[in-house]
Amino acid sequence: MKKTLALVLVALFLVAGVAMAEAKPGDGLYIGVVYKQSGNAYFQASVEGIQKAADELGFTFEHDGPDDGSNDGAIRIIENYITKGVDALIISANDPDALVDVCTQAMEEGIKVISYDAEVSYPGRDLDVQPSSAKNIGLTLLESIAKSVDYEGQIAIVSAMATAPNQNLWISFIEEELEANEAYANLEYLGVVYGDDEYQKSFDETQALLNQYPDLKGLIVPTTVGAPAVAKCIQDAGRDVKVTGLTLASDMKTFIDAGICDETFLWNPIDLGYVASYAAVSLINGDITGAVGDAVNAGDYALTVEAKDDSGATILYLNKLNVFNTDTVNDWVDIL
Ligand code: RAM
To answer: What's the CA-to-centroid distance between 68 and ligand 1, angstroms?
Structure first.
């Protein structure tokens, strides 16, 4: 009898031990992901990272974006997640202010709100996760196009949506530096056109620039959707206009090989989704509040929440831009 009891106890300890060993910080948690628009390969890459974090942490998630990139579409998706009772929202916004009300409503219901990639304005979020400082991104792109055109001639920017917070912030640093830095005195800046993160609109806007400016020398394209459209337009037109920008490697390899781009850049969006997920689970579990100085460890990333360079609101930086050129692009084409 005693022996049987001992065996039962041992078995119970073993079962409990296994259960304890398998308990994960995200067990039972449910996260809703909303990105700028559906069908954008950049965000699909970020979802790969969210899936990796989900496998490690145990949470489940859904992801979606409006087909047309509209605020109304994003709000509908968020409202639907709130109704479903998500524990956290991870959001990339096409307009930083348009989602603040619905996100505030979510926060009032106890849902943690993390913006990633493109911010929801403070106070409509608990934390903003960015791939790099906006200044670093802007100045990297400016220096890149300046080198490609030998620091001389007409340049312009083909951006995403006119309201996009991430692109607008990068552009503001580019414009500031163009004014301030003597090295760029011989660049003539023509301004920004908006391709709305749509391939055809980006192509058409580029065509219009080519028509209007026969001496155009370079274009900065800080959007993965716009960049291949812009480069293709230039290739089709046979014009000697250089392109740099934020791109997927696989989209740009042919244009890098053709010499239309000397180089393009991107952080790893897979890692961005991965880190945003770890931050979300830490917030839900109360391990962090999103205050400056809070630490988030995600795989190889040991990150600390910092004040944001434009608004003082909280942010978590990954701080790494990868460069794609003829030497490196082949290492990346199967990844991004
Ligand atoms: C597009 C989106 C996204 C941006 C990248 C670089 O996919 O506009 O927000 O971060 O480009």
So the answer is: 15
